[in-house]
Amino acid sequence: MRKGIFIFLLAFSIVFASNTKEKIKDSKNSLRSSQAMSEQLSKKLDDLAGDIVSGEKKLRGISGDITNLKGQISVLETNASKALIELDDLTKQNKELERTQKELEQNMIRIIAEDLSFDLLMSATEGKQSEESIISSQILTKLNAITKEDFKRLSQNYEDTIEKIKNKSNKISEINSSIKNYRRKQSDLQNLESTQKNTINGLKRDKEIYSKKLAKLQAQQDELRKTLEQLAIMQKQEDEAARAAREKQEKVASKGGKKGEKSQPMSGGYQTSSVKKYSGVKTIAPLDSYTVKQKFGNYVDPIYNIKIFNESVTLRSTTPDAKVKSVLNGKVVFAKVTPMLENVVIIENENGIHTIYAHLSQIAPTVKVGSVVQKGYVIGRVRNDLTFEVTQRNYHIDPLEMISK
């Protein structure tokens, strides 16, 4: 009888130790996946940092071009302002010339009329010219010559002024055209500057997202390392318990009996998670009504553009605060809140299967480590998204292969 009890204890210790080893392997696999993604995110952060530096350098160049254009526009506006003042002066001068020209024209008409009257008078009194009439004739002739000269000079000044006004107007048009072109270039550069700033801000936002994701991954890695440390301690204790049970069995056995074989030491390395097809009977889903938000297996993260192997599925409940049910009969081996996965329940099922329910908003008060639960038993609630994972010994199983659609 005692021998039977010892054998039972030994078998129980070996099975329990085997489960712990499987948990250690699963934790190490998860840690390795997390580290791989962490390395990819770190590389992505380096690339983003380079893009931000390059973008900011380009932005400084654009800002310099805008500053130069503003300086050129300022010079052109000053020149245009001066030209407008000169044009205004020339316009006033031209108006004055036009007024003087009209006065001269009137004087010319008067002089011509007087000259004509004098000629008629002289013809009527021909042969009877007095000394006074001769002097008057000479004065009129002289005045006529002077007036004609003034008129000629004034006309030339008028034409010169008109030409200056034309040239000045052309110059102002050219300056205004240059200002318009520079302003258009300035507007294009400002639009480019705005686009570049938006690009840099987008890169910085991406960098912040990646940094948070990386920090989250590092926190998960720390949690996994702590779990591994705890499991290693448990493994050591279980190995010691198994050894003690084996020694007791050996003492009960006959002196000539063979000693039990020693258990193989746990390997210090770990391998990438393996996947196997589920071959059992279909079972219920953990949620009554849901959609599949994230499938099992390889996928490219839409935000981070990184290829990731997803060892679980994410099920989104169509109703808030939904009940989460155990999909198989089993025993609760883990039930507590974690920093990264919120409330987590792990149930040990038959045939080496473990079902993991993460991101629970709460765990049912009756669910404790060691509790035996039946299929369909409510183990907790979820606000929206449930992370559901299934393992069988050292393999991962697509949870959607297990549950009925």
From TrEMBL:
Residues 1-17 form the signal peptide. Residues 239-262 have a biased composition (Basic and acidic residues). InterPro entries: Cell_wall_metabolism_enzyme, Dup_hybrid_motif, M23ase_b-sheet_dom. Residues 239-273 are annotated as: Disordered. Keywords: Coiled coil, Signal. GO terms for molecular function: metalloendopeptidase activity. Residues 264-273 have a biased composition (Polar residues). Gene3D superfamilies: Glucose Permease (Domain IIA) (2.70.70.10). Pfam families: Peptidase_M23. Residues 73-114 form a coiled coil. Residues 319-396 form the M23ase beta-sheet core domain. PANTHER family: L-ALA--D-GLU ENDOPEPTIDASE, PEPTIDASE-RELATED. This is Zinc metallopeptidase, M23 family.
